[in-house]
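Ticket #4471: structure export looks truncated?
Reporter: QA, pipeline team
Priority: medium

Steps to reproduce: submit the single chain below to the structure queue and open the exported record.
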Amino acid sequence: MTKLSIETTGIRLRRNFFTRDVLEVAPDLLGKVLVRQFEDGSISRWLITETEAYKGEEDKACHANKGRTPRTEVMYREGGYIYVYLIYGMYWLLNIVTGETDHPQAALIRGLSKITGPGRVGKQLKLNKSFYEEDLITSNRLWLEAPIVNLRKYTSSVRIGINYAPDEWRLKRWRFSLNMSENK
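Actual output as written to the record:
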């Protein structure tokens, strides 16, 4: 298991961090500390290094584009909840719901310290369907903490893996990556 010793304040992020627009939250998640307590009681911490924003029913790449469904129901809640879904029948992807109630938005966690790719993130965290709709504010299994040092430099690029979306949405630079070399 890849672990990184991360200095954290030990303070969980509060609801108001998540209830902002996804285009604010997704880049602000970079450098925050994702904490996972496993069933055996062990706790691991990772730095969030890459995110991707999905902005509501108007975003043709967002799952909520087709409206409210049993799959997307959690995206219509206020920010701070977990939206997980299965791809390729084997990878659970971690998304953080953002924004206000009835404005479906989410930030996909694409990378953690030394873990690249959202499928690998889900596997490392041992995610499954039971995480759907878990509240990051009260969860004992998964939460986010503020780091002691805020890493602020990042780059943005086009989202990937959404070839089904029209260019107008596919080419939006809503993928955010922590620039480790400039944050030293």
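Status: closed, not a bug. The export was complete when the record was re-opened. Leaving a note from the reviewer for reference: The domain at 8-182 is CATH 3.10.300.10 (3-methyladenine DNA Glycosylase; Chain A).
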